[in-house]
């Protein structure tokens, strides 16, 4: 059977999504260190700050990373940032996994599957969780620092992910209806 261009593109996107998941898994241990340096280093962390954790040797670096990770939870600002970044990371992984599931059905040549509707619904829910987390972090920063929080990237994430969640839910309903119509047409033939 000849693969269509859409199926070939879906295969490539599956590979890129898996690469993104692997990259995210590699970066997870650095979340707390980044949050700690973001809260405690003027001007924000640089790559030199993060790599200085391993300046002596690898074993001491792992100990330093663990110490900084635990210390990041003792400061309110770095704890809220670390919690937000963990939330975004987990929900981002859920969205990527749901995207891989949808792309797999496209690559198989069955895009109008009820599984796609469920996957889009789960991705939409993850988008709403990110929007709620961004709203919580924005409110925390607003009460802590004042109106400057409204100009931050976190405040921008609230409407962005709320709209993405709504779009995913609408697409979920469309895919569900398309799957029902396809099932009816398959029965009439």
What descriptive keywords fit this protein?
7 helices, 81% helix, mainly alpha, 189 residues
Structure description:
The chain is mostly helical and 189 residues long. The chain folds into 2 domains: 1-79, no CATH class; 112-189. It is built from 7 helices and no strands. The chain is elongated. The relative contact order is 0.10.
Q: What does the secondary structure layout of this molecule look like, with pairings?
A:
Elements (H helix, E strand, L loop, with lengths): L4 H23 L3 H10 L6 H5 L6 H15 L3 H33 L5 H32 L7 H36 L1
Helix pairs in contact: 1-5, 2-4, 2-5, 5-6, 6-7
Our measurement of the CA-to-CA distance between the termini, rounded to an integer number of angstroms, reads 23 Å
Please give the largest β-sheet: none
Tell me the Rg in angstroms: 21 Å
The fraction of residues in strands falls at under 5%
Average residue pLDDT: 85
Helix share bin:
over 70%
Please mark out the parts with pLDDT under 50 across 5 or more consecutive residues, or reply none.
none
* Count of strand segments: 0
Question: Structural class, judged by helices and strands?
Answer: mainly alpha
SSE ordering = HHHHHHH
